[in-house]
């Protein structure tokens, strides 16, 4: 019973995923329109509430939210925010939250960094 709860923790349901996608996709479409009409500086009015809403939602679910955070931060860069980066990173976050094996593969590169030989001590060991 406890194992089932652990597996369900962090998973985004289909309904939640659709609602989050609709919020983010609508924000990206509005930003494309604002950029087209030269009103890109106004996109910050959209970026802040959408970023906080999605990040809080994922945090409360217990999902891995780092990919979504990266997409939300990139959206704050002027004239880059018209790209659907937030939508893509949200879809990636939802996928990784619901597929634990893919999440393990995506985070496999994290850990200790091997130092080059010239940064190691005289006997070749890391300091």
What does this structure look like?
Helix 4 (about 65-75) packs antiparallel against helix 5 (about 85-100) and helix 5 packs across helix 6. The longest helix has 23 residues, at about 15-35. It is elongated, with a radius of gyration of 19 Å. It has one domain. The protein is built from six helices and no strands. The protein has about 130 residues and is an all-alpha fold.
Helix content: 55-70%
Kindly estimate the percentage of residues that lie in beta strands according to DSSP. under 5%
Number of helices: 6
Number of domains: 1
Q: What is the string of SSEs from the N terminus onward? A: HHHHHH
Shape designation: elongated
Give a quick set of tags describing it.
single chain; 127 residues; mainly alpha; 6 helices
Topology:
Layout: H1 2-8, H2 14-36, H3 44-61, H4 66-74, H5 85-98, H6 100-106
Helix pairs in contact: 2-3, 2-5, 3-4, 4-5, 5-6
State the gist of this model.
By secondary structure, the protein is mostly helical. 61% of the residues lie in helices and 0% in strands. It is elongated and about 45 Å long.
């Amino acid at each position: 019973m406890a194992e089932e709860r652990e597996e369900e923790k962090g998973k985004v349901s289909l309904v939640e995923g659709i609602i989050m996608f609709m919020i983010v996709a609508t924000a990206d479409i509005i930003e494309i329109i604002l950029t087209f009409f030269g009103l890109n500086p106004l996109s910050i009015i959209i970026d802040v509430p959408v970023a906080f809403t999605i990040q809080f939602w994922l945090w409360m679910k217990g999902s891995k939210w780092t990919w979504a955070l990266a997409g939300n931060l990139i959206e704050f860069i002027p004239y880059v925010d018209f790209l659907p980066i937030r939508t893509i990173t949200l879809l990636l976050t939802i996928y990784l939250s619901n597929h634990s094996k893919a999440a393990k593969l995506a985070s496999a590169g994290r850990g200790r960094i091997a130092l080059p030989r010239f940064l190691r001590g005289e006997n070749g060991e890391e300091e």
